[in-house]
Amino acid sequence: MKKNYKTATDAATICVPNSVNVVMTNLADELREGLLALAVGTGLQVMEAILEESVTALCGPKGRHDPNREAVRHGHEDGSVALGGRKVSVRRPRVRSADNARELTIPAYEHFGSTEVLGRLAMEKMLAKLSTRRYHVGLEPVGERVETVSSGKSRSAVSRRFVARTEHALAELLASDLSRLDLVALMIDGVHFADHLCVVAMGIDISGTKHPLAVVEGDTENATVVKDLLVGLRDRGLDMTRPILVVIDGAKALASAVEAVFDHPVIARCQLHKIRNVEAKLPKALAKTVTKKMRAIYHLDNALQAEAELEEIARQLARSHPGAAGSLREGLAETLTVMRLKVPPTLARSLRSTNAIESMIEICRDHSTNVKRWRDGQMALRWCAAGMVEAAKQFRKVNGFMHLPELRKRLDAMIAKEVDISVEYDQAVA
């Protein structure tokens, strides 16, 4: 039984002629070089037929006079189309208006001649650690005849396309609208590219999806740099009035910047960073024992008990290793925020440390391994933004994402409780 399905048509679709004649005698060399070269040669002939069909749609059938025509043929000239990461020279038809006042564009040629695919391919090859000198090695074979008339494979051409593409990625990342994101958690950390530091932010929405949000360049993770980062997020529509769990490492500057920008900040410091900081201030023999105790404490269910036991460790270290004791006490309560919120263990594994954003940072570092000379901070920002965009393609939902709606309720309840306590205190003082 025949079924007639209704299909949608796109105005930008390129029309293929009903009958396309492929001259096999012109493809003899490609046939000897292999199937892929044969397919490329055939495709170029089909493209020429499509271009002529596009000209016919503008000017009417060739050799027939039409007094109402709006365009006329105007010969051919040299042009180029994108093919397999390179430019291939072709003869493109020209069309002018009937009054010869201006030249008209041919939709099919605009489609085939677009260099966007070249920029995208250059970015993919460079992020895959293929240098500009070896760029041509990663290209698909197109046959000797096409290869001899191709261009756009030089180091400078590839570098220009990569710079333009990464600038576009950076601008797109910093201009994206955040008003529709319902973020439950926000992570902030820094990544070094030689002497340049980029501070990056990543958000986790109510469905568990991770979003790279922004990147700024600075000399250190100071409060000014982080504050500029957060103000930029607010200007792009991120709701700062709702409570968001902000996961940071042990830097004091990050905490002060978060408190300055967010209306109701709920700060959680990375437990792994805390353990490493304490471990770095102890001799190896003692560090192993203290580290084991801290890891066990951070897996408890009771935040008050955990805080008491950590304070006991700090008291024991105060006389013999005061530096380690001070490092343990600094921001101790904030390392127990996730525990205090009673987050289920599956989700807690994702939120009690900055491992999620550090995974994204590691992808950025890995993609830029081949860079030997960092010219300036703008270059670091471009590479970092390109790495963040590439990392977003590999993102999976956080473990325990089904508990995020409940975490949202607990964050709202925590802030409501703090507001009620402050109002009662103000009324009592009055």
Sequence-ordered SSE layout with sheet pairings:
Layout: H1 28-33, H2 35-59, E1 71-83, E2 86-97, E3 103-104, H3 107-112, H4 116-127, H5 144-148, E4 150-151, H6 155-175, E5 183-193, E6 196-205, E7 210-218, H7 223-235, E8 244-248, H8 252-261, E9 265-269, H9 271-280, H10 284-297, H11 303-317, H12 322-329, H13 337-340, H14 345-351, H15 355-367, H16 377-392, H17 404-429
Parallel strand pairs: 5-8, 8-9
Antiparallel strand pairs: 1-2, 2-3, 2-4, 5-6, 6-7
What's the helix count? 17
Radius of gyration from the CA trace?
30 Å
Query: Major β-sheet, in short?
Result: 5 strands, mixed
Q: What's the arrangement of strands in the largest beta sheet? A: 7-6-5-8-9
- SSE ordering: HHEEEHHHEHEEEHEHEHHHHHHHHH
The amount of beta strand, in percent, is 15-25%
Structural class per helix/strand content?
alpha+beta
Low-confidence stretches: 1-12, 419-430
Number of domains: 2
Helix proportion range: 40-55%
Distance between the termini: 85 Å
Shape: elongated
Describe it.
- The protein has 430 residues and is α+β, with helices and mostly antiparallel strands.
- The protein has 2 domains: 137 residues, no CATH class; 241 residues, no CATH class.
- It is 49% helix and 16% strand.
- The strands form 2 sheets. It has a 5-stranded mixed sheet, sandwiched between helices.
- Helix 9 packs antiparallel against helix 12.
- It is elongated.
- It starts with 27 loop residues before the first helix and ends with a helix.
- The N terminus and C terminus are likely disordered.
Key features of this structure:
430 residues, 2 domains, five-stranded mixed sheet, four-stranded antiparallel sheet, 16% strand
